[in-house]
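Figure 2 data, in text form.
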Amino acid sequence: MRNCENERGEWYTKKEHLTEVEVAELLDMSPRTLQGWRVKGKGPPFEKFGGSVRYNSTALHAWITAQERNSTSDAGPACYGGIHRCEYPSVIVGGRS
């Protein structure tokens, strides 16, 4: 599932919604980590369809980009602070743009 960059280094995926397992593989972590983050209100934004959890690929990319830091003491943008419920400038999340 490692189809997150094309030959020009641009983000892409063939799927609009990714499963927990696909996102865990993409981030090289355990699905249990994603589950724990969801309980704590951390990590990438997700959507629920009935009982199924899915991650919008565009919102996931925005979240991944927002994790970039310049040093270990860099907390990053104030709205992220480990919480994923903030506005993404050009991504629709939860019906807001």
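Caption note: The CA atoms of residues 14 and 95 lie 22 Å apart.
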